[in-house]
Design goal:
It holds the Pfam family DUF218. With about 220 residues, the protein is α/β, with parallel strands linked by helices. The protein folds into two domains: about 70 residues, no CATH class; about 120 residues, Rossmann fold, CATH 3.40.50. The protein is about 45% helix and about 10% strand. It has eight helices and five strands; from the N terminus they run H-E-H-E-H-E-H-E-H-E-H-H-H. It has a five-stranded parallel sheet with strand order 3-2-1-4-5, sandwiched between helices. The model has no long low-confidence stretch (mean pLDDT about 95).
Length: about 220
């Protein structure tokens, strides 16, 4: 971990407030399927493979095309690279489905659902594996679009500092945290997701970080 990757002391309390808010603190239980949500973070595939090997689900769907920020890292698409990484970690290729078209979180679920239906696979429960700060938005989106399944959220278990160090760009992480926080309320208002609790301390931390200039991921 490098010193430059650490969260500045002046911002730490607010960043930790948002970091904790987006963690749903779910206990992962055996489920019908694991759904790995595409992003720039290969840790999603790493943890999906780990949970598979723990026996938490017999099948993984990796879902995701590309965003402008992931094309250079995952030129064949996020889900394709996730599968390749999981296979390298020991997951049998036959136990992974790839959904290569989704370009946002809503499409992650609608396209995954359609893919499973095409394969004749019925599911009643799923573990959603995402970036740490995407857990709450993934949960709220899934419950809007696929309300009949039981979902649990999971992410590679890293501390805030370890996660920032793994990404190597503290500003990027803070901007993403701020953007996902805004999306919790904005997407609920637009009908894209179910409403979530939004404590005053979360809103205050969000507002201070926006005022500090972390606005690049706002909608």
């Amino acid at each position: 971990m490098t010193a430059t990757a650490l969260v500045p002391d002046a911002l730490r309390a607010d960043v930790e407030t948002l970091w904790d808010y987006h963690n749903m603190h779910h206990v992962v239980r055996p489920s019908d399927i694991g759904i790995g949500l595409g992003s720039h973070d290969l840790g999603v595939a790493t943890y999906a493979a780990d949970l598979y090997q723990q026996g938490m689900f017999p099948l993984i769907v990796f879902t995701g095309a590309n965003a402008p920020t992931t094309v250079s890292r995952f030129p064949r698409g996020e889900a394709v690279h996730y599968k390749e990484h999981a296979v390298e970690l020991g997951v049998p290729a036959d136990d992974i489905l790839v959904e290569p078209r989704a370009t946002n979180t809503g499409e992650n679920f609608t396209c995954t659902r359609a893919l499973l239906e095409q394969h004749g696979i019925a599911v009643k429960s799923a573990v959603l594996i995402s970036r740490p700060y995407q857990q709450r938005r993934a949960y709220a989106t899934c419950k809007r679009l696929w309300p009949e399944i039981e979902v649990r959220c999971a992410s590679l278990p890293l501390s805030l500092d370890d996660y920032v160090a793994s990404i190597g760009d503290v500003d990027r992480v803070i901007n993403m945290l701020v953007g996902d926080t805004q999306r919790i309320t904005e997407y609920a208002q637009k009908g894209f997701a179910v409403e979530q609790p939004y404590p005053d301390e979360v809103d205050a931390a969000f507002q201070r970080l926006v005022a500090a200039g972390f606005t690049s991921r706002l909608v």
